[in-house]
Amino acid sequence: MGRREFLRATAGVGAALALPALAGCGNDGDALTFFFQANPAEADGRRRVIDEFARSHPDIRVRTVLSGPDPMQQMSTFCAGGKCPDVLMAWEQTYAGLAERGVLLDLNIMLDRDPAFAAELEAEGIASLYDTFAFEGGQYALPEQWSGNFLFYNRTLFDEAGLRPPARWEDAWSFAEFRDTSSALTERDRSGEIAQWGFVDTWVPYYSAGLFAINNGAEWASPRTAPERSAFSGDAFAEGVQFYADLANRYHVAPTPADQQSISAMDLFTQGRAALALGGHWRYRTFSDADDLDFDVTALPSGSAIRGAQSNIGTTGLAISAGSRHKEQAWEFLKFAAGPAGQALIAETGLFVPVLESAVRSAGFAEAHSDIGNLDILIEGPAHSAPLPVTAEWARIDALMDRYIGPVLRGATPATSLANRLAPEADEVLRNR
């Protein structure tokens, strides 16, 4: 498949869950079918958007099609069998393969016919998120949420240590400051065992290492869309990955891969045994529900090559099947869900970070995150996000990253090895696509 299951979680998706059928949907063959994946918390937000759409569009019936654990395989099976859902949830790193195979409709067709809505998106939207779903001249999805990564921090532990994290992306810690802060917050018990970690990672480690490289002035690949070469051979990439690996293996402020076989990063943070946790907004509800956890958010650290820090784009979108018999109805649903009405609802639920300025800066979004002091980390996150490459070959690049960055994170080989191992193989994949 085009994306590993855990990476899908970075876009705010988790295990599938049965969503009660909407009134009037049933098994009506004329209903608009909507394929998506959601964890229990996200299902509430989805249900609210669909219910409101049904109320404002009583002539359009919506039938939900819930994904299993492998949505890409499921979509491929549906579409190959002539039963492609009308509206499809799209992930930023897998949609290109579907677009290349002609599964997805180029939404420029609909946008050209709807200039008022197109102008609204241009005025309120965040260009980098829309560009994420632009591939080979087409626009294949409209973004619906931002789910890039940042740092959660335990306010109690920071207050006790007399430390104050940055409140804005522009004021990010340097790598050295981040290391020293994590070290100050790492505590050992009398036996010498670590009782409190300075930093834990709840994302995908080899992507997190790459994100540290991006914050050291590196890129993933060039150009961004349909790249012809990777940037894995650069010094900036190796240095960023090495710093991330050293947090566990050299500085001992984070669990090693071996440690993580027996302890959960999520449990460490929710139980107050870790001061900082890398993750995205999809972790917010879990942390909010944790007993006795007082937390806030802050920016990732950055190397000396850049000013301020960056997240990753991290977004999901909504697409229309090229073979849909209900393209007009599907377009109305996309306009609602990805437009001002649906985005306002998403903001009020607090489940996602919306992608329109009016929604992310709304009172509803602020009220849904009333426990967050550094709200600008979320509001400004999309504008401070570095793009991941858009290519139909990303599944193969993903596998190579796992293969070659993994040993670096285990301390078995230095990050300088990536120039001679990961880079040439990734470049060959991109050249021969």
Explain what you see.
This protein has 433 residues and is of the alpha/beta class. It folds into two domains: 5-147 and 313-386, Periplasmic binding protein-like II (D-Maltodextrin-Binding Protein, domain 2); 149-312 and 393-431, D-Maltodextrin-Binding Protein, domain 2, CATH 3.40.190. It has 20 helices and 16 strands. Helix 2 (40-56) links the parallel strand 1 (32-36) and strand 2 (62-66). Helix 2 packs antiparallel against helix 15 (340-349), helix 10 packs across helix 19 (394-409) and helix 19 runs antiparallel to helix 20. The radius of gyration is 22 Å and the shape is globular. 50% of the residues are buried. Mean pLDDT is 91; it is low at 1-27. InterPro entries: Bact_solute-bd_prot1, SBP, TAT_signal. Residues 1-23 form the signal peptide. Keywords: Signal. It holds the Pfam family SBP_bac_1.
Q: Could you name the CATH homologous superfamily of the largest domain?
A: Periplasmic binding protein-like II
**What's the CATH class of the largest domain, please?**
Alpha Beta
Strand fraction: 15-25%
User: How helical, in percent, are the residues?
Assistant: 40-55%
Strand ordering within the main sheet: 2-1-3-15-6
Outline the low-pLDDT stretches.
Answer: 1-27
How many domains make up the coordinates? 2
How far the N terminus sits from the C terminus, by CA atoms, comes to 16 Å
Q: Tell me the major beta sheet.
A: 5 strands, mixed
The name of the CATH architecture of the largest domain is 3-Layer(aba) Sandwich
Helix tally equals: 20
Number of strands: 16
Shape: globular
User: What gyration radius follows from the Cα positions, in whole Å?
Assistant: 22 Å
CATH topology of the largest domain: D-Maltodextrin-Binding Protein, domain 2
- Secondary-structure content class: alpha/beta
